[in-house]
Structures are given as structure tokens and as C-alpha cells.
Amino acid sequence: MDSIKLIVGLANPGQQYQDTRHNAGAWLVQALARQHNIALSGEARFFGDTARINIAEHDIRLLIPSTFMNRSGQAIAAMANFFKIPIESILVVHDELDIPPGTARFKKGGGHGGHNGLRDSMAQLGNNGDFKRLRIGIGHPGSAAQVTNFVLGKPSPDERISIEACIDEALKCLPDAISGDWGKAMNQLHSYKQG
């Protein structure tokens, strides 16, 4: 099983977006950097904020694109190409409408499900979505017409607590996922119940 070498947290740049649901992927990468006492710093050649950490004896690159969500793939492709990171070794962390706050799911490959960050990542990496995903549940507003305002809105305080709790749980599962023990990481994360 391929180990993970690059963890990307999808987001929109700027103060006005940092606490919005669409930035849940970046929240996880920021939490991971804090856990390792590492600061993310801007790197123009990778169109984002980056850091390098060691997890379970694996050298891991972190990336939060500083492009807007619909250009996320530009940053991912730049870093993956520069460091020769295969698509199967990339973990993209993103907000997910189809699961509720307080839930997170690992997934291998798949479509973009209308997510602009995933859509551009697939286009820029030139594949059918073979990278791994970590889906952070944000819930659904109930109507497709409300989705844009919903993802660009801030979660309620209770939702934010639930999202942060499942991010903490996902961080506990990352060493197994990074080492290639995908099944164990999935079992642990997918059995998590907030309580």
C-alpha cells in the first residue's frame, strides 16, 4: 500500500474565509502543524503555505493552497511535480456536504461530487481522482440552491466544536494512514462517535 507523502488542506485564502466551512480541510492541516510545533510558511513556487514534518518515521509535506478553491490543483500539481510525489501518495483533506459535522471519512479515489477544489485537483493532476481523500463533514443546508452560501458561511459554535473533535480523531488515525495501513485507519476513524 502506498504511503502518504503529501497532505493538502483545501481552503479559500484570506481572513474573510478562514473560519468558513469550506476551509475545514485547512483546519486539519493547521492543527497537524500545531501538533508538531511547525509553522506553515508561504512558498510562491507552490502557490501556498507549506511545511515539512515527520509522522511515523515518514517524511511528510504539508500544503494549504493560497489560490482560491477552484484553482487548488495548481498548488498540488506544483508540489507533487517538484518533489516527484505520485498521485497515490497524496492525501487531500476537504469539507464534505454529504456527511454531518462531527464525522470524518477516509476515501480512496472517486469523483469530485461537485466540489470545486477536488474538480480542479483532478484536472491539474491529470487523472481520474486517484489521490486519497479525508472528508471532513460539514452537513448540508438541505437545498442545492443554498450550498454556495452555506459552504462560505461559518459553522455554528456547536458545529465547530463537532468538526474540531472529529479533526482531533482524524489526526490520531493519520499515522496508520500515512504508513499505508489504510484499513486500520479507516476502521478507527469510521467507528468514531462523538460523545
3D architecture notes:
The protein is an alpha/beta fold and 195 residues long. It has a single domain (6-190), classed as Peptidyl-tRNA hydrolase (Rossmann fold, 3-Layer(aba) Sandwich). Helix content is 36%, strand content 21%. The chain has a seven-stranded mixed beta sheet with strand order 2-3-4-1-5-7-6, with helices on both faces. β3 (48-55) and β4 (58-65) form a beta hairpin. α1 crosses α5 (157-179) and α5 (157-179) packs antiparallel against α6 (182-190). The longest helix is centred in the last third of the chain and has 23 residues, at 157-179. The radius of gyration is 15 Å and the shape is globular. The chain starts with 5 loop residues before the first strand and ends in a 5-residue tail after the last helix.
Major sheet characteristics: 7 strands, mixed
Helix percentage: 25-40%
Uncertain residue ranges = none
Instruction: Please name the fourth-level CATH homologous superfamily.
Output: Peptidyl-tRNA hydrolase
User: Structural class, judged by helices and strands?
Assistant: alpha/beta
User: Structurally, how many domains make up the residues?
Assistant: 1
What oligomeric arrangement do these chains adopt? single chain
CATH fold description: Rossmann fold
Distance between the termini: 32 Å
From the coordinates shown, what is the CATH architecture?
3-Layer(aba) Sandwich
Strands across the major sheet, in which order? 2-3-4-1-5-7-6
Number of helices: 6
The fraction of residues in strands falls at: 15-25%
Overall average residue pLDDT:
93
The ordered H/E elements are EHEEEHEEHEHHH
CATH class: Alpha Beta
How many strand elements? 7
